[in-house]
């Protein structure tokens, strides 16, 4: 091995995820994560080993690199895997090609033109339906027929590490005669994963469930921050608006679908039967362990949730097929959120709303304080990895601190 990769690293030889990084003396550019290092792809390109226009590796987003197509991007990934494992390869004795992750700053990996958020966990949709509507009829009649989603806001998607201020907005306190404007008192996270499309379609074209994977470049972790009190007042009839668009964080490394291929599993049975355009063949879910921790200011992290991406009722192929079935076009770099990923077990719920059950079951922190929602000074960290037969492919983390309202 050209460079040491610690055992249990998310960024094993089986992963090779793509991102955009910079250092004191390197402008933002493409790299791949390898163990605790980053392989500088713009620097590798100077060895004249790639047969495409390598200017795409010096851009500050991956969009142009992704637009080369999977034939090229997959080969870059597999070439790197070979070179890293061959001690006499072109990467040998060139420490200048590697940068310590600790010394690098990560940037948004892609320019996201459009962002759609689905609502595809049956456990999450059922929990929310029980709390806000009718415990007997928690799921709305369309839920098992349509991968429900809404168009989100792309401009406020930011990369892990960037602190945000508590948002303010209109809320309607119980029994108040009129709404008030104030900082949200119910700031929440949503544990999600996002997929990034790697191929354009033209207006009028649709993507079938069978072809969907050709259009998906890779995945990231996504924290879809939510202000529950603002949401409750504004969401009828058109859905979330200012309760969601103040910020969403993603992890900086895009893990390719190829890297995730070994971790495919069957999804849950879908009953009633879906319409033909949503039918699919084979395994379309992925076994990805997910966890969420809260670190209060000056205290230690408490893990409050252990979930798994395999629980999703609707898979990514169905989501993309549904999204495009009316001819809606998609672009390289667009992001699609899974929806909050909750499991059956109450420790697998993917939001504070569910974990603390609308504030009725507060969570204990190590400093003795309790949480019904997220406090100022708290850092919320989500991690995810897949592991099978000794092969580990992980996402690193998406982490951000909440600062007081401005
Ligand atoms: Ca969401």
Percent of residues in helices comes to: 10-25%
Total E-strand runs: 26
Bound molecules: calcium ion
| Continuous helix count | 8
Quote the average pLDDT: 97
The CATH topology of the largest domain comes to: Fumarylacetoacetate hydrolase, domain 2
Summarize the main sheet. 8 strands, mixed
- Cα shape: globular
* Rounded Rg: 21 Å
Superfamily (CATH H level) name of the largest domain: Fumarylacetoacetase-like, C-terminal domain
Q: Which CATH architecture of the largest domain is right?
A: Alpha-Beta Complex
Distance between the termini: 49 Å
Low-confidence stretches: none
- Under CATH at level 1, the class of the largest domain stands as Alpha Beta
How many domain modules? 2
Portion of residues in beta strands equals: 25-35%
What structural class do you assign from the helix and strand content?
Answer: alpha+beta
Describe the model.
The chain is α+β, with helices and mostly antiparallel strands and 406 residues long. It folds into 2 domains: 18-107, Fumarylacetoacetase, N-terminal domain (SH3 type barrels, Roll), CATH 2.30.30.230; 115-403, Fumarylacetoacetase-like, C-terminal domain (Fumarylacetoacetate hydrolase, domain 2, Alpha-Beta Complex), CATH 3.90.850. The protein has 8 helices and 26 strands. The strands form 7 sheets. Strands 6, 7, 8, 13, 14, 16, 17 and 22 form an 8-stranded mixed beta sheet that branches. A 5-stranded antiparallel beta sheet has the order 4-3-2-1-5. The model has no long low-confidence stretch (mean pLDDT 97). The chain binds calcium ion. Calcium ion (CA) binds next to loops.
């Amino acid at each position: 091995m050209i460079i040491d990769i610690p055992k249990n690293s998310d960024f094993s030889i089986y992963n090779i995820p793509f991102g955009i990084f910079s250092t004191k003396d390197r402008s933002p550019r493409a790299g791949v994560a390898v163990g605790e290092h980053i392989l500088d792809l713009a620097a590798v390109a100077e060895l004249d080993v790639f047969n495409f226009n390598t200017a795409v590796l010096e851009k500050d987003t991956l969009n142009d690199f992704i637009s080369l197509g999977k034939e090229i991007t997959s080969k870059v990934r597999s070439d790197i895997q070979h070179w890293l494992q061959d001690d006499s390869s072109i990467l040998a004795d060139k420490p200048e090609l590697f940068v310590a992750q600790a010394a690098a700053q990560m940037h948004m990996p892609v320019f996201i033109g459009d962002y759609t958020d689905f609502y595809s966990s049956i456990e999450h949709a059922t929990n929310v339906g029980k709390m806000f509507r009718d415990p007997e009829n928690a799921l709305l009649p369309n839920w098992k027929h349509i991968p429900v989603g809404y168009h989100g806001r792309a401009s406020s998607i930011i990369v892990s590490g960037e602190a945000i201020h508590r948002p303010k907005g209109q809320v309607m306190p119980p029994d108040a005669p009129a709404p008030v404007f104030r900082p949200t008192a119910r700031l929440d996270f949503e544990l999600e994963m996002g997929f990034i499309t790697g191929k354009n379609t033209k207006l009028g074209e649709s993507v079938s469930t069978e072809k969907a994977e050709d259009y998906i470049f890779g995945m990231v972790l996504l924290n879809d921050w939510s202000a529950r009190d603002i949401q409750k007042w504004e969401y009828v009839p058109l859905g979330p608006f200012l309760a969601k668009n103040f910020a969403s964080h993603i992890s900086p490394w895009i893990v390719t679908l190829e890297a995730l291929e070994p971790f495919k599993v069957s999804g849950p049975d879908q009953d009633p039967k879906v319409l033909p355009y949503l039918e699919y063949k084979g395994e379309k879910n992925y076994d990805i362990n997910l966890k969420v921790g809260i670190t209060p200011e000056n205290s230690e992290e408490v893990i409050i949730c252990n979930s798994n991406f395999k629980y999703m009722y609707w898979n990514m192929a169905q989501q993309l097929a549904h999204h495009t079935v009316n001819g809606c076009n998609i672009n390289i770099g667009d992001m699609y959120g899974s929806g909050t990923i909750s499991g059956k077990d109450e420790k697998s719920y993917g939001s504070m709303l569910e974990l603390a059950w609308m504030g009725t079951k507060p969570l204990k922190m190590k400093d003795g304080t309790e949480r019904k929602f997220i406090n100022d000074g708290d850092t919320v960290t989500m991690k995810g990895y897949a592991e099978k037969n000794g092969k580990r492919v992980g996402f690193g983390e998406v982490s951000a601190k909440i600062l007081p309202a401005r």
